[in-house]
Amino acid sequence: MERLEYRCRGIVKGYAEGYAMLSIKPLNLLTIDYDGIINDHTSSLNGKSIVGKVLIFPNAVGSSVGAYRLYALKVNGKAPKAIVCMKADIITASAAAIASIPLVDMVDCYKDMLNTIIINHNVNVIVDADKGLIQIQLLT
Amino acid sequence: MQLSKEEEDALDGRYGDTLALAYRVLVAIGNAMDADRLVSISWAHVSGVNYNTIGDAGLTFLEDISKGNAKVRVMTTLNPMGYDPSRVNELNLSDEFIEKQNRIMKAYERLGVIGSYTCIPYEALDATFLPKHGSQVSLAESNAAIYANSILGLLTNKESAISALASALTGKAPYSKLRVQESRSARLCIDVKYDMHTELDYALLGYYAGRFNEDCIAFKGIRQEDIFIFSSATKPYAKANAKALCSALGTSGSAGMFTLNYQETIKERVEFTKHDALKVMDELSNADDGDVIVFGSPQLGLDELSTLLNMLKGRRFKKRCMIFCARSIYSKAKDLGYIDALEKANASVYCDCCSCLTPLISRDDVDSVITNSVKAAYYLRSWNRVGVCLSNMKSIVEAECV
Q: B5-181, superfamily in CATH?
């Protein structure tokens, strides 16, 4: 299995791996329902579940209460396993901090990683926030 | 990020679990935003009050952190909750919702928060309570943060519910982004090439601008007197325009500020044309009509209630009309006779709550809603799952009143 490695910045510590769920556009976390389904008709992930995935998005937008939504998902066992941002923002960082969800951002090589995921579509992501390392596994 | 000895101790739990958690949040945000230290703030406005937005997990979280003796360190105001307690009998809410909503309020009270239940603290609070120009504050409600930065000259980032709460409990915030004077300039200028007539036009511009993912956005082609409340030539509708712009900008994006000042040398420029305005309308407005009229998000201020009455000219709404306003505004409006006049016009005025994630509008009995609020439109569609017909206040009154 082919693996690609990227450097990242650990914001909230932890290690996790999971299937990549990518939103090209920023996400409004408040539009994720308590079952982990995205309900935003303006989002490309509308109707998709983020449960147990590695959620990848540039940053959060919109509601300040989105932080509570991510926390609720964690409490209910419906949270993403880890979050990868282009540049972590206040909403996402504060939510990941109270929910203990590993969070990394990658200011420098986000676009490279994005391209890899877009081209290969079907990938697993291993997030090591402690070491500041992301691995992409190409699935067939 | 460099912490003082006392801050380190608090982070290590020496002053209790709640304060340790608050510092953990501030450190995570500070690291994400490359802050080198914490600064003191003088006001926090906390969101995450409506049971519909924070749910059981949020309720338990707030009850946990308010169990001990943790108290807010600075003046802290609260965003709207889920319902109007003074009208609870007419609101067909489940006992469970009311009970859980009340527990949330109690938890905040234990922390020493002021139960303002408003998303327009800049308008609902007595002006003497607002910190002076240039003060560091921590406002979570996005429209309030943008309004405070852009119009009141206060310094805040677009805080999250959790980061503003952490700031309230510690009296501190990471010194970064819009808190730093030098960072409060725009890198992007939006050249407004669209005739801006109504509050809805400003909201469409805001929603469009938010999509650019900038901290601070400059607008060219907007007149100061149409939007800035402190200009000597300010128009009576300026505040409504500003609120529409701030709330829509906060809904679609991450920007915490806009400005009408920009360097002519600013490189990144885009236009806002009629085509762009129509595209936003297309994205948000999917109904030609509605069963209910909704005014508010943000909650209406005294000026907007007065404007609405002037537009009504004694006419009545043909259908149910819900108006959301702050409790303190309601009291003043009551004294002025506005509330009685609005009720005579077949409108219901609700306090302490607003249209975002409201339990008061359900798909069970509403197909679609008519509103002038882009923020309401976004959440009514995505959360309440009802259709939305967007129109400006004047057109709504003309079309829906007899």
A: Aconitase, domain 3 (3.30.499.10)
- B156 pLDDT tier (thresholds 50, 70, 90): very high
Q: Determine which one of A23, A43, A49, A63 is catalytic.
A: A63
Question: Could you report the predicted ipTM of this complex, rounded to two decimals?
Answer: 0.90
Pick among B160, B163, B252, B358 to test the A interface (most A CBs inside 10 A):
B160
Residues in A lying within 8 Å of B, measured between beta carbons:
11-12, 26, 28, 30-31, 34, 39-42, 58-69, 71-72, 74-76, 87-98, 103, 105
Question: Two tokens at B342?
Answer: 């609005």
**Full-model pTM:** 0.95
Dihedral sign computed on CA atoms, order A46, A29, B96, A74 = positive
- B104-B108-B109 Cα angle (round to 5): 115
CATH of B286-400, one of 1.10.10.60, 3.40.630.30, 3.40.50.2300, 3.30.499.10: 3.30.499.10
With a cut of 70, say whether residue A47 has pLDDT above it: yes
Whether B198 shows a pLDDT value over 70: the answer reads: yes
Burial tier of B267 (Cβ tally within 10 Å: 0-12, 13-18, 19+): exposed
Indicate yes or no: CB of A61 within 8 angstroms of CB of B213. Answer: yes
